Write the structure tokens for this entry.
Amino acid sequence: CGIHGSKRCDISSGKCRFTGPIAGTRQRTQPVGCTGNPCQTRRTNCTGNVKNLTIKNLTNLVKDLDVVRLIGNDNITLIGITFDSRKIQPGTLFVAVKGTQSDGHDYIDNAIASGSPAIICEQLPATLPGHITWIQVKDSAKALALSASAFYNHPSRKLKLVGITGTNGKTTTITLLHRLFNELGLKSGCFTTIRN
């Protein structure tokens, strides 16, 4: 652990605990992994296993979004991003996405109750709790894709993609290329309507 800016980690009873403000919440001490730990890149979950923890600043996640309105502090630390309110833990960004069966906007209160410090949504609720950062966008599904890509350091930018279109021979061509790349020792994936 050690000192990380204004945040402080210490070891007591063999478990690392975080003391300090977490993504816009009140200052408190929390067991690492049970509720998140934005001051280090590893965390120990409640059973003692070590997991990697990605930590990002909200400012970096929303800079490429088509933001209609931002209310609150965008300089907060986040430990995750999700559109499923059941997966929220303190420090997780919640993106309210309208689906075919349900609307993520209906679960904003659940996300806040579970500790989400920031919400991306298309429609702002009637009452806005002041301790939450609100990011209103035109398309929350697109905002989810862009912010998730930024959160995980744009993994698709590290891939070389080949798309094959046409009337005949697409599956044959992609199968030949996939086998060729594998025989050359290159990692490759193959996605077609027939096989993946």
Remarks:
- The helical segments are 58-62, 108-113, 140-151, 170-183.
